[in-house]
Backbone:
């Protein structure tokens, strides 16, 4: 059996090509997986973009099939929890980095990495959401566990036109929050307002170093940017506010002080989607199935083929992609 997929190599130099992959190659390089999944859809996230463009050392083993997300149907299984015919979703766990991933028609994956498809959802919808949307839901659930309610004030979403940001804006607005969207792309203003943003602000208002404590504004923040943007968001939080930090598009450093934490009781919540426990994953996906506005999801999603992925990876790293990229693995 052979199937189409993207293969990354680093010898003699880096290459990313769409090609036929043999079942024997998959079995050799993904031998740790005990579930064979026929994948129908995947997606391109920022991390996938880094792998496809070789802009960062994301890939740790070579050769590699990239793709940290996938959704499809179990074709072979040695685990009774996931019999043949089960519809499943994969997010993270180093897939596409240290284990062959999901930008291919088939993947061998470990049963413990997979969750069953929630009710009222299919593979196409799941991958339109992808890790970006799943991460957005993890952020919002974390904020609400800290007591966040719509009547407490404005919620800031940074990097709002990206994948995580777009879904976060939609989810928060649907829940009744007043959402302020920060973006560097003025052309996305109408798009973000359509998703439910009450106001769209220029990211540069948060990107310049500011005072350790600034005028209180935010009841909560979903931050995908990090660096100075996160430092300013912390300085502008209301007393008792929380920030869910899930990204580093602006950099890994955090030039802040302890002032927001000890003088305003601000909580900084780290959100990890890669190794999140199974119960947390399943709950986030259930909530997405129940509450994400499907019309909003359609408006933020662009469908592409496997052949489009390499160019799309470069574009997402360059900040040229709005919303979500859905990959139809039946179109090579």
Residues:
């Amino acid at each position: 059996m052979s199937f189409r997929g993207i293969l990354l190599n680093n010898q003699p130099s880096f290459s990313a090509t769409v090609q036929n992959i043999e079942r024997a190659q998959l079995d050799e390089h993904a031998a740790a997986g005990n579930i064979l999944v026929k994948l129908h859809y995947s997606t391109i996230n920022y991390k996938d973009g880094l792998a496809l463009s070789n802009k960062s050392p994301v890939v740790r083993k070579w050769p590699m099939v990239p793709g940290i997300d996938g959704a499809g149907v179990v074709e072979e299984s040695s685990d009774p929890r996931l019999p043949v015919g089960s519809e499943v979703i994969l997010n993270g766990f180093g897939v596409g980095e240290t284990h062959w991933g999901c930008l291919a028609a088939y993947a061998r994956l470990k049963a413990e990495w997979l969750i069953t498809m929630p009710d009222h959802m299919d593979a196409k919808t799941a991958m339109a959401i992808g890790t970006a949307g799943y991460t957005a839901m993890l952020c919002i659930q974390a904020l609400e566990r800290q007591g966040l309610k719509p009547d407490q004030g404005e919620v800031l979403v940074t990097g709002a036109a990206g994948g995580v940001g777009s879904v976060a804006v939609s989810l928060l607005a649907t829940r009744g929050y007043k959402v302020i969207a920060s973006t560097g792309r003025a052309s996305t203003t109408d798009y973000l307002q359509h998703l439910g943003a009450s106001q769209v602000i220029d990211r540069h208002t948060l990107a310049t170093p500011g005072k350790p404590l600034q005028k209180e504004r935010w009841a909560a923040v979903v931050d995908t940017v990090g660096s100075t943007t996160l430092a300013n968001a912390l300085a502008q939080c209301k007393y008792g506010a929380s920030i869910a930090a899930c990204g580093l598009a602006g950099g890994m450093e955090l030039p802040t002080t302890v002032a927001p934490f000890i003088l305003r009781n601000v909580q900084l919540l780290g959100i990890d989607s890669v190794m999140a426990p199974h119960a947390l994953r399943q709950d986030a996906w259930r909530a997405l199935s129940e509450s994400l506005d499907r019309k909003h999801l359609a408006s933020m999603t662009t469908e592409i083929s496997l052949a489009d992925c390499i160019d799309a990876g470069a574009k997402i790293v360059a900040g040229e992609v709005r919303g979500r990229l859905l990959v139809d693995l039946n179109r090579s």
User: Anything to note?
Assistant: The chain has a mean pLDDT of 96. The CA atoms of residues 154 and 178 lie 5 Å apart.
